[in-house]
UniProtKB/TrEMBL annotation, chain A:
A Pfam family hit: Band_7
Location of this chain's protein in the cell: Membrane
GO CC, one annotated term: membrane
Residue ranges with Gly residues bias: 9-23
Subunit field text: HflC and HflK may interact to form a multimeric complex.
Role: HflC and HflK could encode or regulate a protease.
Chain intervals for the UniProt region annotation (Disordered): 1-45
The organism's place on the tree of life at top rank: Bacteria
Transmembrane segments annotated in the record for this chain: 73-94
Topological relation to the membrane, as annotated: Single-pass membrane protein
Protein name per UniProt: Protein HflK
Automatic annotation (TrEMBL), chain B:
SUPFAM superfamilies: Band 7/SPFH domain
Single GO MF descriptor: peptidase activity
GO cellular component: membrane
A Pfam family reported for this protein in Swiss-Prot or TrEMBL: Band_7
Residue ranges annotated for the Band domain, each copy included: 22-190
The organism of origin for this protein: Terricaulis silvestris
Predominant location: membrane
Membrane disposition: Single-pass membrane protein
Ranges that cross the membrane: 6-27
Function field: HflC and HflK could regulate a protease.
Family the UniProt entry places it in: Belongs to the band 7/mec-2 family. HflC subfamily.
Name under which the protein is recorded: Protein HflC
Amino acid sequence: MPWNDQSGGNQGGGGQGPWGGGPRRPWGQPPRQPQQPQGGGPDLEDMLRQWRERFGMGSGSGGGKTGGGRSPISWPIIVGVIAVGWLLTGVYAVDEGERAVVSRLGVYNRTVGPGVHVRMPNPLEASQVINVTGQRVEGIGFTARGETISDNPEESLMITGDRNIVEIHFRIYYNIKDVSDFVYNVRDPISRDDEPGAVRQIAESAMREVIGGRNLEPIITTDRGAVELAVEQLMQQVLDEYETGVQVLQVELLRAAAPSAVIEAFNDVVNARQDAETAINNANRETATIVNQAQGYKEQTVREATGEAQRFNAVYAEYRAAPQVTRDRLYLETMERVYQRGNLIILDQRGGAVPYLPLDGMIRRNATTGDAQ
Amino acid sequence: MMPRNLPLVLGVAFVALVILLNSVFIVRQDRQAIVLRFGAYTASINEPGSSEPGLYFKIPFFDTVIMYDKRNIGLILEGQSIVPSDQERLIVDAVVRWRITDPRRFYQSALTEDGGEERLKVFTESAMRRVLGAATSDQIISGRRAALMQAIEDDLNRSAATELGVRVVDVRIRQADLPSENTERVYERMRSERQQVAGRIRAEGARDAQIILATARQENERLRGEGEGERARIFAQAYGRDAEFAAFYRSMRAYDTAIDANTPIVVPPDSDFFRYMQRRRGGN
């Protein structure tokens, strides 16, 4: 590269190259023109005469017309056209959102804003128009082709502070805050083709540094915003240190997740949480049933007891009024009900010997009839 | 101007132009140059520290101008295998940002930018081995990354800078990863860790559910007990007013509920129930 450069072959306004281009042309062309009519034999005398005529005419007002119909355009006009063309190389336009850096003989001269501008023609001054406000973007960790996004494991897999591996896809949005810094200070500020530029290199390095200082769990859950902010700050710090003239607008973390090789195990943790919650929900549901039943039982028991007590109190009140009568009545009423229901056998022992009582059979018979009921 | 002299004039002009072109050169803002006269160094132009880009003159055909970049240049070192002090091998990618600060020295030792990059690469590799080899892999990955990068930069500036005529502006470790054969083991561990977490969460869920149910059963017993206690109190209060009658009354109720249909009952005719029946009989 440097060997080429010494011959002045580098791009745009550098070296001696342009001298050989533009300005030489007015000198280089004339000798050729007279050779065309000359045809075969070298008639030096004739050639010189034509030259003389032309130069003679050039000082006159008429132009080349008297020089014969052979050459309608005269020499001064050619020079004039070329000169105007040359001067026009100094006219350039800068769009809204763009800035141009102008260098004079290779030296930074000025930065100009939008509009049409004039500078010295080509080798003397050169201009470089750069979009500064337009948002530029760099995507890292993935390749996007249309809608499909494919992972770029070499870029996306990063090691975390707790020795896990995380898959990160992110984008850097940036623009240019200082054109002259951008143009003059760093050789490769932005990526070209497959060559990663400084912005990309710094982004990758900053992200890895930030991820390396944090644990996996927070990175993929709560700390996403913090990661974005930390990367943005770290990047800006380095970009400023290099004087790249680049301003980071935003760091966007698109994906921060466990690598696909282990994603299943991570998902199972989520499932486990659901399972645990389900178990707890079920237990809570059963609790509601049990406790409500118990409350119902308590209420029932108390109310029944209260009811019974009230009933007793009522009867007792009567009993107090007429003890013996009430007592007898209660006894008889109860026995009446009981004997009605039961299978009553009246046994008179007065008759002397106890008669045979087939109790077994009676009970069995009653049991079967009882079952049948 | 006499037309006769024209070819001569043109010839002289052409030669003059060639000589002129060969005697001027432009050093751009972002470049630096050294001038050699028959190979011997005579001057440097626009090297860092002295800002003097622009148009320069030289002796045509005698002087040679060599141009170098003045800007910050990136050098990427990919896949450096580093063995830190804890013997856990790491694959480290780094970016070295550098610039030519002494073009004369650079010309002497490297000649071209490509040559310089090649030399710097070798310097950086050994600096990385020295600095990172003394650190632990934990420090490289997280803890002291920034400090280690600074240490490599300082190391390089001590050695490479003087020898190559460059200055290393920054060293950034882009990646510091485990080699692929270890990666699978990391994944295995991550999986087992997650399985452990999942198992713990499920067990905790089951435990919590069990506790909730046990609490529910406790509450159940407590409530039932409360109810029964209350009942006992209510009864005690009611029946306590007349224990004898209460016993009679309860007995009556118990007979009523305890004896169900078809229960055989053997009753002597002289029971209280039949008292009047007998009196009547006796009266006959």
